[in-house]
From TrEMBL:
This is Putative exonuclease V. GO terms for molecular function: single-stranded DNA 5'-3' DNA exonuclease activity. One of its GO terms (biological process) is interstrand cross-link repair. Keywords: Exonuclease, Hydrolase, Nuclease. Pfam families: Exo5. It comes from Rosa chinensis. Belongs to the EXO5 family. GO terms for cellular component: nucleus. It comes from the Eukaryota. Transmembrane segments: none annotated.
Amino acid sequence: MTESPSDSRLLDHHHPHLVPQIPIEIVSDEEMALLFARSLIPSTVRAFPSSVRSLQYSITLLSKRSLWGCSQPGIEDSGWFNTTTQKKKAESLLHRFRNKKGLSASDFAESEWCEQQMRYILLNGNRVISKAMKTGRERHAKLEEEFVTKSKVVVNSDEDKWALRFLKFITGINQLYTEGLTRELPLVGFAEGIWMVGVIDEVQMPATETQRNPLLVDTKTRVKDKLPSEPQRRKGRLQLMFYKYLWDNLEASGFPADQFFDHFSLNPDCDLSEEIREVVRAKSGYPAKTLDDVVKYYRKSWILLPRAHDQLLLRYELQKHYSVIGEDIFAYDSDVFKKQLQVCLEFWLGKREASYTPEEERWKCYSCEFASTCPAAPAN
């Protein structure tokens, strides 16, 4: 993806006056978690204290036990297909590996990086986690802990698991409106005929009377004290565009609950476990007996939310001590994103074979764990 200087500028930590100062607006309301019809009442603008911890829950799944009337976790639907189209769909990578998960922002970005590598990862199982990748995950966990209180919760069914995911979004949005910032915000939506999911690193609420569009932020960690190559920045930009696209689609079209229950083989009337109901009540202030109750609150939250900001922020940090190397602020390009999304879906839906990375970017192969078996990899 190419872009003009007006679309993107890199902000270096050596020139702090170039870094955008994003003020935070604190909005006071009755209880955002109730999500009933009411107006949001803005209050005074103040700086956001880094020491504040939210009531948001970060969930660790401890066990899975099937219950009568509920869906057993981790069960993929099998089915008989009596048409060529259905059979081809069943054989696609999307159906084989993401049918009960949804296509993620990471799936999209990794496919743009190299479709063949993505294919190898899917067919060979989870990829090897490098030291740099592990450090990056640890950094994101620490960033989340600055604003999130974590707790371990036992789940008994797929309904419990999905209820917790939606609850984390609802409490995250509550935090965004009351404190001006939230982190690790999960999204679940339907677009382009498929289910899509993602977890946004950070969402900030601008503090102006005329600007109410949340700013989406993604943080990348670097081993070296320098900005990444253009293909690496392109990958990061596309991942953020995925979040923006999914956010705006949910804001405009809503969440198709019946279609969701049907696709993921969930029972909307299945009683959530007592522990899950207690978590929902304690952390959001409203009663929810079933998954359908929680999904209704998720749907209502999108009625109140505006579109995401057209500007997106990609932050690069040095892994050694988490100092900011630079920030890439760029404009959402709908045409570029949708074109790349269609290319991606052709691969995931089995409409064509996986492509290799362009010859001018074959340097990627030197760090690929599948290079020894890939015919496109350059000879050592």
